[in-house]
Design a protein that fits this description.
CATH superfamily: Nucleoside Triphosphate Pyrophosphohydrolase
Order of helices and strands: EEEEEEHEEEEEHE
Number of domains: 1
Number of helices: 2
Shape: globular
Radius of gyration: 15 Å
Distance between the termini: 28 Å
Helix content: 10-25%
CATH class: Alpha Beta
CATH architecture: Alpha-Beta Complex
Largest sheet: 5 strands, mixed
Length: about 160
């Protein structure tokens, strides 16, 4: 399924759904960030996805990171809650979703990098190399907040 992200775009379609999603800023021992290159919009992103019935947000983010990257993680903190009504995601099936993501910090504890049906690439990226990548502004905000290590989580 393809998607189009609209961000502060007056021509964006109106949202017709909202779904709880989770994401993670995962850093390795060298300080690099785990990124995927998404198949649905061809942008780089931190791993994440939808919360499923019967799981907690932290269980969901551990599952999503493993599914999308092959890396096992342990959640170490909360980056924040990101829900911006000016960011909607239109899918080719007619769904237009308002962004809503609970973003965590996580450390890798095992596994090996691998792609999934949702990614064409999975890689550890040095923070100095982030500017050269095509990353949606909402994901850049999560990464920036995740790198701050603030005592209080970020809320939109």
């Amino acid at each position: 399924m393809t998607r189009i992200d609209y961000y502060h775009d007056p021509a964006a379609p109106r949202a017709n759904t909202i779904r709880v999603a989770v994401s993670a800023v995962v850093r390795d021992g060298e300080g690099r960030i785990l990124l995927i290159h998404r198949t649905d919009n061809s942008k780089y992103a931190i791993p994440g996805g939808g919360l499923e019935i019967g799981e907690t947000p932290t269980q969901a983010v551990v599952r999503e990171v493993k599914e999308e990257t092959g890396i096992d993680v342990v959640v170490t903190g909360l980056v924040g809650v990101f829900s911006n009504p000016s960011h909607v995601i239109a899918y080719d099936d007619g769904e237009v979703r308002q962004e809503f993501s609970i973003c965590f910090r996580a450390d890798p504890i095992g596994g090996e990098l691998r792609t999934s049906a949702e990614s064409t690439a999975v890689e550890w990226v040095a923070t100095g190399d982030l500017a050269a990548l095509d990353i949606h502004p909402s994901i850049r905000l999560r990464i920036a907040r995740g790198l701050e290590y603030r005592a209080d989580p970020f809320y939109t």
